[in-house]
Design goal:
four-stranded antiparallel β-sheet, 3 helices, 4 strands, 32% strand
């Protein structure tokens, strides 16, 4: 099953800046070959359910290995069975309404 996810991984106990930990998670998503788009407060991901969930787990493993003693994560998921739709399709749909 295809899934769209909005992932926000927040390392705790590492100080104010978390950019290096976010970068580590972005590397995981690249290595997994998943379509993803980083935004200011997280990352949108699309792919097969099991692949996305495995990547989320690897993000936690790598961020812990990078020195974060604790992590809190927000994860929003969306699936649909009526048709296929990419993250870009969703953006394009809203953009077309704005352009009218």
């Amino acid at each position: 099953m295809k899934v769209h996810a909005d992932l926000c991984v927040i390392p705790i106990g590492v100080g104010v800046s978390v950019a290096e930990y976010v970068a580590e998670c972005q590397r995981v998503l690249e290595e997994a070959g998943l379509e993803h788009q980083m935004h200011a407060y997280g990352t949108n991901i699309e792919g097969e359910w099991d692949d996305v969930m495995a990547a989320v787990k690897r993000c936690h493993e790598r961020v812990h290995a990078h020195g974060a003693p604790r992590i809190t994560t927000s994860l929003k998921l969306g699936t649909r069975t009526d048709r296929e739709q990419s993250l870009q399709d969703k953006i394009d749909s809203v953009q077309s309404k704005l352009n009218k």
